[in-house]
Amino acid sequence: MSPARFAELRDGIPTADIYVASQPSPTPAADAAPVARGAVATLAPAEAARQLGVTRSRIYALVRQGELEDVGAETLRVTLDSVHRRLVASPPAGEPIKPLGAWAILALASSDAGFRAHVAARLSQQEQSRARLRLRDRGLPDTAPRLHQRAVARRYTAGAESLLAVLEHPRGVLGGTSAARSLGWPLPDGDWPAEIYVPEAVLVDFIEGYALELAAEQTVDVVLRAVPDAWPFPAHLRVVPETVVALDLAESVTPSLAALGRARLKELGAGLEPSWERRPQRRRPLRSSVPSSGRMPRPHPRLQHSAAADAAWDDRAEQDARGLVALLFVAGGMRRAECSEALRVSSGRLDRACAFLQVSPPHGLALLESGERIELVSAADCGPLIERFMNKPAPEPLSQAALEVLSIVAYEQPITRAEISHIRGTDSSGVIETLLARRLIEDDPRFGGRGRPAFLATTADFLRLLGLNSLAELPPRPLPSELG
Description:
Number of helices: 21
Number of domains: 4
Strand content: 5-15%
Helix content: 40-55%
Radius of gyration: 28 Å
Structural class: alpha+beta
Strand order of the largest sheet: 5-6-8-4-7
């Protein structure tokens, strides 16, 4: 920033927001025109936040980190010179985007189709176009600093029982470090508080119902991020999508978490082509059964539209899928993070490669996606052949109670043992131990320690038993009217 621009910025600040803190020197007369030598111009936190394009809480964090200077008055005042240096080092990204517009950008940049469709249903055509243009022109990393108004973060202390009840609340969705831990991201060591997105309409119920109290910086147990506008997440979603997790970390006052978040945002935004439309299924290429005479035969009229469909698909997806098959053939099974690192692709490109293999799997094989783990398995129609070859006896059928518990876990996961017993109206400990022994369910450590009970989730063996490639292929839950 040039000196002239700095003078213009300083002159444009309302005089009510500028305070001149005198150093140990005689106070100048009230009618003196110039500021005396040794005087320091300061700004209130609200005005400093407006100039830097951040929130007021971020101003307090920058003062604690020493990046903004405090003159030591009774109320916080930061020096104009330190604001100037911050502007030169990190110019503001622009005016904050309103909450619904911020969620539109995050949904558009996400690979989660359910999240994107849920947000798109709440937007007009004009709002969808605006979000697409913003993301296309500036990209995800440069747009991210303008999205902080999507939710308001408040920090609280809570007892062990209250914290567990907050985590189990059906309206809460894990975010920040809690979601990153669930996704298997490598977090720096630390006892991070639980971070949860909640609708602003139920925030008071959370605080009063679970006796939460506002916390000091060192005694935070839970961070509630209240969403002021329409709820952006689909029903039964328990962990926010990766784009939201990365943005939560990038806004952290902890440098290591902020660096991890910015790196993830850059990775997720690499090669991003924002579109609200679903990618069409890629059709298998047609191969002639007779030798070619040198001329390309004209495709059948009913198949001519496949060329346009193929053009809309990212051609890199097929190349990434070939590499993924080769890796899984050697390794047997890998976590998503390991696959992304080995293929040197973003998580979005890995998702497109998996989608390609779900549509066009290798002959006799199928891609199995179980949570964060991916592996190649034999196709469902080849199961009897494999069992006959390996002389494997048919699995013992499950009892009616086991089927009930397995259905509850499949549709409500992650879920505690107490919740299963409450839904069934009877103690289910013995049935749960049977399913654990058969490796159809397992303990899900997504919530970590801190004295919380274990949560249960289905396993890859569960998907193999039902012949499914992912949980997305589960049949829809019946409506209450259909249950009689």
